[in-house]
């Protein structure tokens, strides 16, 4: 039974490692776009508008006012 709980305790660390790996890989692919100011502003605007879209969509779907 002790081995079971040791194994279960590893999953949060694995999840954090997986999520960080995805974000690091994504950032490495987008890093060259930040060298040009026009694409940097466009990329930041796209990320911000995506976040706002998700925020308002989830807010409307969940009925939060």
What does this entry look like structurally?
With 65 residues, this protein is an all-alpha fold. It has one domain. 85% of the residues lie in helices and 0% in strands. The chain has helices at 2-30, 37-62. It is flat.
Work out the strand percent: under 5%
**What is the number of strand segments?**
0
Unreliable stretches (pLDDT < 50, length at least 5) are none
In which range does the helix fraction lie? over 70%
State the helix count: 2
**Can you tell me the number of structural domains?**
1
Distance between the termini: 46 Å
Structural class: mainly alpha
Please provide a brief summary of the model.
The protein is an all-alpha fold.
Features:
65 residues; mainly alpha; 2 helices; 0% strand; flat
Helices and strands in order, then pairings?
Layout: H1 2-30, H2 37-62
């Amino acid at each position: 039974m002790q081995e079971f709980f040791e194994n279960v305790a590893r999953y949060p660390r694995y999840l954090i490692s997986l999520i960080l790996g995805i974000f690091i890989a994504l950032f490495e692919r987008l890093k060259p776009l930040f060298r040009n100011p026009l694409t940097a502003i466009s990329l930041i605007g796209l990320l911000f508008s995506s976040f706002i879209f998700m925020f308002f969509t989830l807010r409307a779907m969940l009925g939060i006012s």
